[in-house]
Design goal:
Radius of gyration: 20 Å
Order of helices and strands: HEHEHHEHEHEEEEEHHHHHHHHH
Shape: globular
Bound molecules: fe (ii) ion
Length: about 375
């Protein structure tokens, strides 16, 4: 009985409109949800890129006023969520649109939780803590990587504890995700690389996760193929619309996979690191990736061999050990090719920081689905190797 229950898998996804120009459906959806006043969550970088004004104009053309909330840090903070919730209430909003990367989208999820419950965002850490429906969420991602626009995750920073915490619930899957590759054209090559590697990590971690299954495997494998085939070329040609669309599609596929299969030690360790040093999420993942693959490989060799094959490595006639080495070399080379060759040490992490980082990483929900069971000492050793 218990073994059959362990085999059960669910799959949750938002309504998705994918393709160039899909962002312009925002007003139609706002009307469908009966919205009278929108809280528009974004950040200064996305404002400067022009996307905030465009969304406002689309909404205004349909007679829907909105109020901006732009005070969102690259790693959104608990107090920013609370400030956004106050703005939502003060202006009598009844729906939330987020345009931006993972930070505005995660902040928007947090604002939705707070206004629905009339509580503090810190009270909702963990899995399935949301008790009442939250306001309609319409998301327009401006990066191809975080997949906050399709996922059941909201990741919020708590500067008091110098850590990030996760809220995992079906309730924070947006009602609709308008995935428009044109909106990613304003990303610079560094952000393109960070978010693209984040998406690749989502696909790999979802595929080797203990929560993986047929419903997520196909998305994870297709995501790996698309990102591996297009990310390096995109970083070299950031204005190429077709490459943008291919990487965006890969990112979306990775998001559908990881939202449902959950993640692993790269993200558990990266959340701890990002909360401690306020570094970009994709960069944190990148610095940890091959070290976690080396740690995990023997726990799920058949899965990692499929990963290697999907990334174009010819595994015929090779020993398991050789495949592991080639997979790690491939990941290191891909990172180098997109300009992400740094180590934890070069990012300012010291050996004396490792105990703090490891302590929080083993408390992160993502560690639970890592293919190899990971104790405090294991995680500390992987951090040391990544220094
Ligand atoms: Fe991620």
């Amino acid at each position: 009985m218990s073994s059959s229950i362990a085999q059960l898998r669910k799959f949750v996804a938002p309504e998705i409109i994918f393709g160039d120009g899909s962002r312009h459906a925002v007003a139609n959806y706002a009307q469908t949800f009966g919205a009278h006043r929108i809280l528009l969550v974004s950040d200064p970088g996305v404002l400067a890129a022009g996307w905030v004004a465009e969304v406002e104009a689309d909404l205004a053309a349909c007679g829907i006023p909105c109020h901006r909330f732009l005070q969102v840090s690259p790693n959104p903070r608990a107090e920013e969520v609370m400030a956004g919730a106050r703005v939502y209430r003060d202006y009598g909003c009844d729906a939330i649109v987020a345009v931006g990367g993972g930070s505005p989208m995660d902040c928007a999820k947090g604002i939705g939780i707070v206004v629905a419950h009339d509580g503090h965002i810190l009270d909702f850490e963990g899995v399935d803590t949301i008790r009442v429906p939250i306001p309609p969420l319409i998301f327009i991602p401006s990066t191809a990587g975080t997949s906050a626009d399709v996922s059941q995750f909201a990741i919020i920073s708590d500067p008091q504890r110098r850590m990030k915490f996760s809220i995992i619930s079906k309730s924070v899957v947006p009602d609709v995700s308008l995935i428009d590759p044109q909106v990613t054209l304003t990303m610079d090559p560094f952000l393109t690389a960070c978010t693209g590697v984040d998406a690749l990590v989502h696909a790999i971690e979802a595929f080797v996760s203990t929560g993986s299954g047929p419903l997520t495997d196909s998305h994870a494998l297709e995501a790996m193929r698309l990102i591996n085939a297009n990310l390096v070329a995109l970083v070299d040609n950031p204005h190429d619309g077709e490459l943008r669309a291919q990487v965006m599609l890969g990112s979306m596929q990775a998001g559908l996979a990881f939202s449902n299969a959950i993640l692993g030690a790269v993200h558990a360790m990266s959340h701890s690191l990002g909360g401690f040093l306020d570094l970009p999420h994709g960069l944190c993942n990148s610095m940890l990736l091959e070290h976690v693959v080396a740690f995990n490989f023997e726990a799920a060799p058949e899965r990692f061999i499929r990963v290697a094959q999907t990334l174009g490595i010819d595994c015929r006639g090779l020993s398991q050990q050789s495949i592991k080495q080639r997979l790690i070399a491939h990941l290191v080379e891909l990172k180098r090719a997109v300009g992400l060759a740094g180590t934890l040490g070069s990012a300012g992490v010291r050996s004396s920081d490792v105990p703090f980082l490891a302590e929080h990483a083993v408390e992160d929900p993502c560690i639970l689905t890592n293919p190899r069971r990971s104790c405090l000492r294991d995680v500390a050793v992987v951090y040391e190797e990544a220094l």
